[in-house]
Design goal:
The chain has about 450 residues and is mainly beta. The chain contains 2 helices and 41 strands. The protein is globular and about 90 Å long. It comes from Candidatus Abawacabacteria bacterium RBG_16_42_10.
Length: about 450
């Protein structure tokens, strides 16, 4: 009887001990076998696009594929390698922090050279430009401009306008409507309805995203002399111009507002009410403002001296100043800034983020996913730039030009074949997963 009682006591003690250990481990602790102490751990959540990449941590295969949770890791820096058939391998460090979760969301993998399809063009490709919102691609050839869309796992041409090699264009943010100027002739192209018409006049525009649609009318904003002009395109092709604001140094249209710098003051004026709002004073003693960039609560103004200033309108404070910088503006998809090969990103939610220094100066930055951009360097090479965690990942390629529709496809031309488009479309199932997760 006493033996049976003793066994019961031992069983209860073991049960309590084991249960306590299990509970402690489940709460994020681990056991250091050398010191025989419980230590707090951290967690990392990692996902890739496409999902299903094999993950190794510090060279150890964890027998899991993305999306994956790395649990019960002691605080410290770990090297994560991800491999997916048909895509270039990715390796980067992550920091595990005690009792916190490190998120690495949607690292978009880059396709290998054998994972691309090609499409023969009628003539040499001069420029390609993507309009992600409508999954639209503009291709400027030696014999004209074509508009393509992603459809049924391939590229489909929806319209073509024969123009000369020196023709210029400007489109809406979606790319569903454009104006094209070819010498002394201008056209309005309605891409969605597959038609174009000649304009009775030549509109003036500064960049390829100067066309806007307000209340059913298409309007081109431009800076002519020191004035902001609004050029309205009528149904019969006539262009009526009016001055929106006089004596302006720089301006930017964002949503339903026009931002501009005038007399050393930053203003925001609503296109709905027409009422101007003073935002802040701008120091122009050492140079006028020549460029303005707007993203949510953040504004960057750049002076003729090259100085760039980041201003937070919600805090009414200057967040950073660069003596010389290059700014890449991708509208609602984000702002990027480089100086001496160093790269920063401005996020609408997280503000200014530093993402490291490239091997050479950056001449192009395109959004690639939620957490990374594609950079073209001065030496002609490309690299993926992770925003969080900050990391620059070189990739193998011989691209001459590239256009990206994030999560959907990549379109490029190469150095050796100017009359061929190369494109890669991501797995359709991964597209749906991303749409659901967003």
């Amino acid at each position: 009887m006493w033996r049976r009682f003793g066994l019961s006591i031992v069983t209860v003690i073991l049960y309590i001990f084991i249960s306590s250990v299990v509970i402690v481990l489940a709460q994020g602790y681990t056991v250091d076998l050398q010191t025989r102490k419980f230590l707090t751990t951290g967690l990392a959540e990692i996902n890739t696009f496409p999902s299903g990449a094999v993950v190794t941590v510090d060279g150890v295969d964890i027998k899991k594929t993305t999306p994956v949770n790395l649990s019960h890791y002691l605080p410290g820096t770990y090297t994560v390698d991800m491999a997916y058939s048909g895509y270039q391998n990715v390796s980067f460090p992550i920091d595990i922090v005690s009792e916190l979760v490190t998120h690495v969301d949607e690292v978009a993998l880059f396709p290998r050279g054998d994972n691309w399809r090609n499409l023969q063009m009628s003539s040499s490709v001069l420029k390609i430009e993507a309009f992600p919102g409508a999954e639209m691609l503009l291709v400027k050839n030696a014999d004209g401009i074509g508009w393509w869309i992603l459809q049924k796992r391939t590229l489909v041409k929806v319209y073509f306008l024969p123009v000369g090699v020196n023709a210029k264009y400007s489109c809406t943010v979606l790319g569903d409507a454009c104006i094209v100027v070819d010498g002394n002739q201008a056209y309005f192209v309605d891409v969605l309805h597959h038609l174009s018409k000649k304009l009775k006049g030549i509109p003036v525009f500064q960049n390829t995203r100067s066309l806007y649609k307000f209340h059913g009318d298409y309007v081109v904003f431009a800076k002519q002399g020191g004035d902001i002009t609004m050029q309205k395109l009528s149904a019969d092709g006539t262009i009526s111009m009016q001055i929106f604001e006089e004596g302006v140094d720089a301006f930017q249209v964002s949503g339903q507002d026009v931002w501009f710098v005038k007399n050393s003051v930053l203003w925001k004026q609503s296109l709905i009410s027409g009422l101007p709002q003073k935002i802040t004073e701008v120091d122009t003693a050492d140079g006028k403002v020549e460029k303005l960039f707007v993203l949510a609560d953040y504004v960057i103004w750049q002076k003729t001296t090259g100085e760039a200033v980041l201003f937070d309108t919600s805090l009414e404070a200057i967040m950073n100043i660069w003596s010389h910088a290059t700014v890449f503006d991708h509208g609602e998809e984000g702002l990027a800034l480089t100086q001496n090969a160093k790269i920063w990103f401005i996020s609408p939610k997280k503000g200014l983020l530093f993402s490291g220094q490239a091997a050479h100066d950056v001449i192009m930055l395109e959004p690639y996913s939620k957490v990374e951009w594609l950079a073209k360097l001065q030496d002609g090479h490309y690299a993926l730039v992770l925003v969080e965690p900050a990391k620059i990942l070189p990739i193998e390629n011989d691209f001459a030009d590239i256009a990206i529709i994030p999560y959907k496809g990549i379109i490029a031309t190469t150095q050796g074949t100017s009359d061929t488009l190369f494109y890669h479309l991501f797995p359709e199932q991964s597209w749906m997963n991303t749409l659901i997760n967003n």
